[in-house]
């Protein structure tokens, strides 16, 4: 085992950090406050090849892997500019289309994803099922004797639809009274019959959430991804990368907030002493730092397993759990270090708390991860 990063990875981190620093945390925070997309930063990273760093070179990607995409997530977040849609467009949609898409689908969609010109978001969760794939009710059926499809149903809490050209939709292709068989479809975000209803949330984010209604949305045969009914396997090709990159985003958020807190604790003087000299402050920050770096190790392991085509489910879940917990501890310690200033807009910490708190719930909540580890890692009886 070699825990030192090679020259290419060091250069990647430096390059991503430099691009993000050109925009700065104030850029992210202002877009979060106004709920407007960070399009300029996305395109800048895309122009330099980092949005699609994990996608195949023949389609304009970087030809690297999830390890490198996770570094992009980490480093952009560590500069105060986390990009939530990297988890969706690059990690889920990019990985699924690159692995299961037809040649024409790859040629059509991957170059635009790689360049940052286009985004494809992901729609799986539903109001009555959450992300329980066995209970999904959105249904796709063939239209007459043709190869085209009609999709009806509802999706809930779908991120970034207003920024996307298309949506990767998970739908049943088996009747409701039969065992669920899932299929994946690429649906244009402006398709007739598709209604996009903004879902207001109190979390301060640039990315907006939506409820989607599919009312007999017609898609042609070339929008089916992979094999009909093979959606369970295809979905997990995207869900593990989503969890791993989500962990990377949390690690970066934790690092950013701890850096801000350490700077503040060094310069904030009370009773002639920097507050960082007091163990009541320093121990909380040191503990959070340890937790963040432990989560970073598991995140790297999970990404490496995925890239080497080894079972990554356990590590991906553990990384996501550990990183979300660590990020929240880091942000809480950073806010506490700042005292009342921790809630002041000037210091810009609260938006990162909201994003990390969201990532403790999504894309899979901590309780379901504990269920997974109890059942699959420890061999305990299934609890649900």
Produce a short descriptive summary:
With 384 residues, the chain is of the alpha+beta class.
Rg, Cα atoms, Å:
21 Å
Strand order of the largest sheet: 1-4-5-8
Task: Report the uncertain regions.
Answer: none
Structural class: alpha+beta
SSE succession: HHHHHEEEEEEEEHEEHHHH
The oligomerization state is single chain
The number of distinct β-strands equals 10
Q: Please state the overall shape, judged from the principal axes of the Cα atoms.
A: globular
Main β sheet profile: 4 strands, mixed
β-sheet strand percentage: 5-15%
Question: Mean pLDDT, nearest integer?
Answer: 96
> Roughly what percent helix?
40-55%
How many individual helices?
10
N-end to C-end Cα span? 38 Å
């Amino acid at each position: 085992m070699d825990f030192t990063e090679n020259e290419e990875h060091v250069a990647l981190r430096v390059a991503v950090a430099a691009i993000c620093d050109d925009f700065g945390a104030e850029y992210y925070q202002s877009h979060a406050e106004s709920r407007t997309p960070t399009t300029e930063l996305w395109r800048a990273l895309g122009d330099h090849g980092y949005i699609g760093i994990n996608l195949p070179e023949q389609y304009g990607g970087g030809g690297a892997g999830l390890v490198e995409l996770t570094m992009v997530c980490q480093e952009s977040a560590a500069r105060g500019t986390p990009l939530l849609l990297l988890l969706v467009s690059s990690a889920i949609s990019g990985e699924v289309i690159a692995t299961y898409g037809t040649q024409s689908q790859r040629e059509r969609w991957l170059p635009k994803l790689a360049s940052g010109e286009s985004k494809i978001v992901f729609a799986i969760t539903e109001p009555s099922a959450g992300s329980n794939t066995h209970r999904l009710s959105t249904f796709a059926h063939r239209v007459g004797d043709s190869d085209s499809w009609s999709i009806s149903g509802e999706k809930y809490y779908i991120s970034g639809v207003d920024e996307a050209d298309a949506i990767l939709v998970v739908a049943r292709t088996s009747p409701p009274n039969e065992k669920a068989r899932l299929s994946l479809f690429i649906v244009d975000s402006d398709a007739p019959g598709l209604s996009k209803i903004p879902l207001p949330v109190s979390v301060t984010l640039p990315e907006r959430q939506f409820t989607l209604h599919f009312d007999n949305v017609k898609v042609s045969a070339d929008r089916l991804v992979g094999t009909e009914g093979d959606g369970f396997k295809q979905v997990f090709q995207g869900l593990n990368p989503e969890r791993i990159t989500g962990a990377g985003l949390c690690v970066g958020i934790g690092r950013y907030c701890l850096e801000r807190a350490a700077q503040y604790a060094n310069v904030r003087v009370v009773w002639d002493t920097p507050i960082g000299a007091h163990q009541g402050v320093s121990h909380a920050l040191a503990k959070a730092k340890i937790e963040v770096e432990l989560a970073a190790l598991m995140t790297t392991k999970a990404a490496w397993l995925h890239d080497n085509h080894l079972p990554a489910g356990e590590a991906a879940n553990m990384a996501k759990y550990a990183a979300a917990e660590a990020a929240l501890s880091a942000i809480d310690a950073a806010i506490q270090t700042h005292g009342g200033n921790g809630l002041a807009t000037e210091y810009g910490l609260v938006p990162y708390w909201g994003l990390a708190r969201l990532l403790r719930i999504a894309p899979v909540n901590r309780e379901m991860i504990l269920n997974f580890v109890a059942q699959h890692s420890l061999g305990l009886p299934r609890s649900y």
